[in-house]
Design a protein that fits this description.
Elements lengths: L2 H9 L7 E5 L6 H10 L3 E5 L11 E3 L6 H11 L3 E4 L11 H21 L5 E5 L31 H20 L4 E7 L2 E2 L15 H6 L1 H5 L6 E2 H14 L7 E5 L10 H8 L20 H7 L7 H4 L5
Parallel strand pairs: 1-2, 1-4, 2-3, 4-5, 5-6, 6-9, 7-8
Helix pairs in contact: 2-8, 3-4, 4-5
Length: about 325
């Protein structure tokens, strides 16, 4: 990254002690985000009705953010300068489609609405998902090119992926409505692996990481994407710092620098997803199917962790 870009980002960084509100603070990604922001010296407040928010949070409110009044109360109580919205029904088909879509879209709207109208909020990051791309569709899916980046066409095929695309449009609507008074961005984190999952705890899909490596059919439908939760949390920190230097409403992929696979994707993907074959030659060695080049170019962020270094040998 150029010295000019580095200086721009550094000059807009949140100073230590900034009050930051994290929704979904007890979740797989939320726990690492709370920890990373607190370690950076910020005053972090969690909002989550479930237990598990790290003790590094200054306070936790078990609010139901699908209620607009509760969303406004959370903003008014904690008076944050920045908001990281992670709360959601976190996996496809874990609830009914109608419930998943209603909850996820209402959460995104309410958090953005409350942030926009409660004085003091300057930066908002909203969690989306790589599933907006459309992989795994039951009637077939083929990429336009590989690796996948933020310019690739989206094609959600279930309520979860549609709700995540709606969250992106929601934050962009608020950016258009309110201008640069509040800076917005969305992240599409790949399959998030919490630290304990490297040591055998079940992942969000119910399988263990070792199983996903040993059985390519488990990870193949999602193109073997993943990211360590701590790397994703560091991405959130970099994004919050860099928001004023970005075009309002940007969207970013964030993934590991390699694929969650024992074989190169150029060989593995055509066997499990034949429609990817025409584009797989672009994936060299251990390269992943999702590109984080935009995050590196605009934010200077690079993932540090790989399954090759993090996975316990006892798993």
């Amino acid at each position: 990254m150029s010295d000019k870009v580095t200086a721009t980002i550094a000059g807009s960084a949140l100073e230590p002690g900034t009050r930051i509100l994290v929704t979904g603070s007890a979740g797989r990604l939320g726990r690492s985000v709370v920890t990373a922001l607190a370690e950076a010296g910020h005053e972090v407040f969690g909002v989550d009705p479930a237990p598990g928010t790290p003790a590094a949070a200054a306070a936790v409110l078990p609010a139901d953010l699908t209620d607009l009044g509760e969303a406004f109360e959370a903003m008014a109580r904690f008076r944050p300068r920045a908001v990281v919205h992670l709360a959601a029904i976190a996996t496809p088909f874990s609830r009914t489609d109608a419930y998943t879509y209603r909850v996820n879209t209402q959460l995104a709207f309410n958090v953005c609405e409350a942030a926009a109208h409660c004085g003091g909020v300057e930066r908002v990051v909203v969690a989306s998902s790589p599933t907006v791309i459309g992989y795994g569709a039951p009637h077939g899916w083929a990429p336009s090119y590989l690796p996948l980046d933020e310019d690739h066409p989206v094609a959600p095929w279930n309520a979860y992926s549609l709700s995540k695309l709606a969250a992106e449009h929601t934050m962009r609507m608020f950016a258009a409505a309110h201008g640069d008074r509040v800076r917005y961005a969305a992240l599409r984190p790949c399959f998030v692996v919490a630290p304990e999952e490297w040591h055998g705890a079940p992942t969000q899909s119910g399988h263990r990481i070792g199983e996903r490596l040993d059985r390519p059919d488990l990870g193949g439908t999602s193109l073997f994407n993943y990211i360590d939760a701590r790397d994703a949390a560091e991405f959130v920190r970099c994004l919050l710092d860099g928001l004023p230097a970005l075009r309002n409403g940007e969207v970013f992929f964030a993934g590991a620098a390699d694929a969650l696979a024992r074989e190169p994707l150029a060989e593995l993907l055509p066997r499990h997803l034949p429609a990817t074959a025409p584009h797989c030659a672009a994936l060299d060695g251990t390269a992943p199917a999702f590109s984080s080049a935009k995050a590196e170019a605009l934010l200077g962020w690079r993932p540090k962790r790989s399954w090759r270094t993090e996975l316990s040998t006892e798993v």
